[in-house]
Design goal:
CATH superfamily of the largest domain: Aldolase class I
Distance between the termini: 23 Å
Largest sheet: 8 strands, parallel
CATH class of the largest domain: Alpha Beta
CATH topology of the largest domain: TIM Barrel
Number of strands: 15
Strand order of the largest sheet: 14-12-10-9-8-7-6-15
Helix content: 40-55%
Number of domains: 2
Mean pLDDT: 91
Number of helices: 16
Oligomer: single chain
CATH architecture of the largest domain: Alpha-Beta Barrel
Bound molecules: 5'-deoxyadenosine
Shape: globular
Length: 447
């Protein structure tokens, strides 16, 4: 299984390498103490060279990929249908497709599109995705290692006041072992390590974790551990965690503090900016449909994401959780179409962006992931949390439809590793089938 294809470095200037993939050229940075030179075969993720690979192995992998690579490209072209929109939306879409700068009122027109206009809207975004970035779709794994959280976010099911959920923490050994499995057995080249804001894991513990992983595995690690001091993040970067996933949640400062008691949007944005300036590969974004948000807020959310120049957009619809303040407020659920329109509009505003199709889309509708990929999305995550913990990382309901064990099973599991992982492997297979059916290659070629 392969979630990244090796490329050959054709030249290096300073720390920036130009890499060839079957004739397509992309750039990626050489980071840390990796020694890379022209002629080397490497894996790159998120614009960073994360591993070298010997030539024989690389040529063998490329040999098996070559035919499929071009087959998939052709198939992707076949998905580029768009129908024909009428009226105002037609001219806005034409402008977007020609790379025009959309005004706020044109963005509102996009968010208001309904019925027959939607097909053309999503189709246009898909077209731009294909022409700007080709058919590569990065597939990251995510490992949720602790559901303890010291925060009281009004939307999040693992907020500290939720006494109904069973809390868990994975040990450092368990995390390293699971990462090893994800990299060596499942073939992942980029992994997100996510938790609530859990001070049980000191900086030193996390640094040890990152070092142990990086000593063994060529994988791009993203930390999604919430707010820690910039100093802590810097030390974690030095240890080898080059990625961070940190959403700003909403661009509206008042709403931010309402949703996240005791917290300020400025602090969050300040940290995200520092991480990006330091060289972290950052994924950031927002929640669609927090209470009281308007179309203008949503446009601000997209524009703020763009202005941060992240490596990846990560946003998703609010799924009200019954054991949160929002869950008790009867907030209107977000429609799948609004989430898809947000993907499409982000694609227009930032044509070369990597836009994640979040699992929350699938919670809204079984076809959500597929539709997201056809509305401008080009990135996916697969949950690799061990089955005994998966159901407990309950940030929103329905997140873990693929739970293998019922809620009453809280003790350690005695089933064999193979049995435990049937679900994960099924999800991987389904995801790959979906990607192949749409002509997408599960690789991150970068820019
Ligand atoms: N619905 C949708 N997204 C949520 N998140 C947390 N709770 C919810 C919810 N109820 C998102 C937040 C957080 C990320 C890990 O999950 O954006 O940053």
């Amino acid at each position: 299984m392969c979630y990244a294809i090796p490329g050959r470095i054709i030249s290096i200037k300073g720390r920036v390498a130009t890499i060839d993939y079957f004739g397509e050229k992309r750039t990626a940075s050489v980071i840390g103490d990796l020694k890379a030179r022209a002629g080397d075969y490497v894996y790159a993720q998120g614009g960073i060279i994360i591993d070298k690979i010997n030539q024989d192995e690389a040529l063998a992998i490329l040999g098996t990929w070559k035919e499929r690579f071009f087959e998939l490209k052709k198939k992707d072209m076949d998905t580029l249908t768009r129908g024909r929109a009428e009226g105002e939306i037609a001219s806005v879409l034409e402008k977007a497709e020609n790379g025009g700068f959309l005004s706020r009122s044109e963005m509102e027109t996009i968010l208001k599109t309904q019925d027959s206009g939607l097909e053309t809207l999503f189709g246009t975004a898909n077209h731009i995705r294909s022409s700007e970035l080709g058919n590569s779709c990065c597939v990251h794994g995510i490992l949720e290692f602790s559901n303890y959280c010291k925060n009281e976010c009004a939307y999040c099911g693992i907020n500290k006041n939720n006494t109904k959920i069973k809390r868990y923490r994975m040990t450092i050994d368990e995390i390293v072992e699971r990462v090893g499995y994800a990299v060596e057995e499942l073939g992942f080249k980029a992994l997100v390590l996510q938790s609530g804001e859990d001070d049980y894991y000191t900086d030193d513990m996390l640094i040890e974790l990152v070092k142990r992983i990086r000593e063994r595995y060529g994988v791009l690690l993203f930390l999604s551990i919430g707010e820690r001091s910039f100093d802590s993040y810097k030390r974690l970067y030095e240890a080898g965690a080059y990625g961070a996933l940190l959403r700003f949640e909403t661009s509206n400062p008042k709403l931010y503090t309402l949703m996240r008691p005791g917290k300020k949007l400025d602090d969050r944005i300040g940290l995200i900016k520092k991480l990006i300036a330091h060289g972290f590969v950052v994924a950031t974004g927002f929640i669609i449909g927090l209470p009281g948000t308007t179309e203008a807020d949503l446009i601000n959310d997209i524009l703020l994401t763009k202005s941060l120049k992240p490596d990846m957009y990560s946003f998703g619809p609010l799924i009200p959780h019954p054991d949160t303040q929002i869950g008790k407020m009867k907030t209107k659920p977000v429609s799948l179409n609004l989430a898809l329109k947000t993907i499409a509009l982000s694609r227009f505003v930032d044509p070369k962006a990597k836009i994640l199709v979040t699992t929350a889309l699938e919670t809204l509708e079984k076809q959500g992931k597929r539709k997201g990929l056809l509305a401008g999305g080009n990135s996916l995550m697969i949950n690799l949390t061990p089955e005994q913990y998966k159901g407990k990382y309950d940030i929103y309901p329905g997140k873990t439809q693929d739970q293998l064990f019922d809620e009453s099973n809280n003790g350690p599991l005695v089933a064999s590793a193979d049995q435990l992982d049937i679900k994960t492997q099924d999800t991987i297979r389904e995801t790959l089938d979906l990607l192949y059916s749409l002509g997408r290659a599960p690789t991150d070629l970068g820019r």
